[in-house]
Amino acid sequence: MQNDMKTPLLAGAASDASEPLPRCPGGPVISIIGSGDFSRSLAIRLVACGFRVVVGSRNPNRIDRGLFPDGVDIRSQKEAVDSAERVVFAAVYPEHYYTLVGLRRQLAGKVLVDVSSATRLNSGEQSNAEKLAELFPESRVVKGFNVISAWALQAGVHDGSRQVLICSDCSTSKDTVLQLARSMGFSPMDVGGLCQSRDIEEAPLILFPSWGGPILTTFILFLFFYGYNSLKHILLPYLDKGQNNFHQLPLVTMNETLPAVALVTLALVYLPGLVAAVFQLCRGTKYKRFPRWLDHWLCRRKQLGLLSFLCVVLHAVYSMCLTLRRAAGYTLLNAAYHQVKADVENSSVGQQVWRSDLYLSCGILGFGVLTLLAITSLPSVGNAFNWREFTFVQSGLGYTALTLSIMHTLFFGWDFAFFPVAYPYYLPPMYLLALILPCIVLVGRLFLALPCLTLRLAKIRRGWESARHWPRNNQEPRSNEADPPQNVGDV
């Protein structure tokens, strides 16, 4: 059994580089120029998918054969290129492309796949793939696989990124690489000619391209609420009365700021859907595109929701830690002292008990629903839902979470907003400011739930148009009920 495990999976895999390389009856032979980490990971993935792999190295005798899986032959670069039936991967750094000029005759007519990436953004220089195409004019250069990391190649498509961006000026060679990527279990995307290779090479250098706006928005909200709370409860009392409350900055002020940021950010997730619905109702058609800012906002709702969930988690952790700080013990001792001094046996107030229980219950339920929303936003979970199930979770449960969060905040404030003591220095409580936008979103959703608006919006999204969009020759209005909307906005 041990001898069987050591036998290569593909027949005819020779271990001696001096022996001639036989043809693999089970599939084409693919060569890789270069023996680095990416070459090893690519060879592992190709062998796992049933391909015969030959790795070309400048000095094959110095390569540890144990780094590559069984079924991979390590030979010189010339022998590896000669062995390839059609596809050759160039897995070397761009500054070493000139060392491959001697293989120009062997590479003529073959598909040369460039897997390199750019070293800096917006350099304005010629892309690596275009330089490679100039060095090998008789080869069919294809750009691809550079957005897939070596770890993703080894882990497989279930644990790593699946999308592969591919471009080339030769459509036949591009189709070959597209089919190869599908055979490896990835999702290839044709992005055009080789002139697009610069964008593909710069793609791995872009850091979280879809997270910049949501992170900046969340950070600005945090600065606003944190500064407002610090001004009202720490800075102004210190300047006016000399009270030193600066010890509240690390924990108490943070814990009061995070729920406000989470609530407003969650409202920003569902506000663009309402705005999109208003646009469609006012226009009477779905065939006009939304403004660019609204399109961009709609595409960033997932990131905003996850950032809101992060703030909620931090708020829960901070709340549990409040009782652990030393100041909490002093507060309990002071309260007990005043109770004993006032000869009060039972300080429990039924109204306050109801308030705290409802406040905590709504907070726990809201946290649970937000957790469910965060889990279903994962592609591996969301892909298991059909469209109706996904819409119910992300829209129906989303508004449920927003409602519970608003109730959590209202029970926390109770009737405190109606007392003058809540407005020191004429500044309103922070939770009132945090409730403005969420309440607007919730009221807007209830308004759009009116039957007259709901039915009209449903007709528009199924292709109906108002009379002002009809053709001038008084023909029947178009009704493309099967056409998907250009922009999708949850109502």
Automatic annotation (TrEMBL):
The chain crosses the membrane at residues 206-228, 260-282, 303-325, 358-378, 390-411, 431-453. It is found in: Endosome membrane. Its main location: membrane. One of its GO terms (cellular component) is plasma membrane. It is a multi-pass membrane protein. Its cofactor is FAD; heme b. Keywords: Copper, Endosome, FAD, Flavoprotein, Ion transport, Iron, Iron transport, Membrane, Metal-binding, Oxidoreductase, Transmembrane, Transmembrane helix, Transport. Residues 30-116 form the Pyrroline-5-carboxylate reductase catalytic N-terminal domain. It comes from the Eukaryota. SUPFAM superfamilies: NAD(P)-binding Rossmann-fold domains (SSF51735). Residues 261-394 form the Ferric oxidoreductase domain. It catalyses: 2 Cu(+) + NADP(+) + H(+) = 2 Cu(2+) + NADPH; 2 Fe(2+) + NADP(+) + H(+) = 2 Fe(3+) + NADPH. GO terms for molecular function: cupric reductase (NADH) activity; ferric-chelate reductase (NADPH) activity; metal ion binding. Pfam families: F420_oxidored, Ferric_reduct. Signal peptide: none annotated. One of its GO terms (biological process) is iron ion transport. Residues 471-491 are annotated as: Disordered. Belongs to the STEAP family. This is Metalloreductase STEAP3 isoform X1. The gene is steap3.
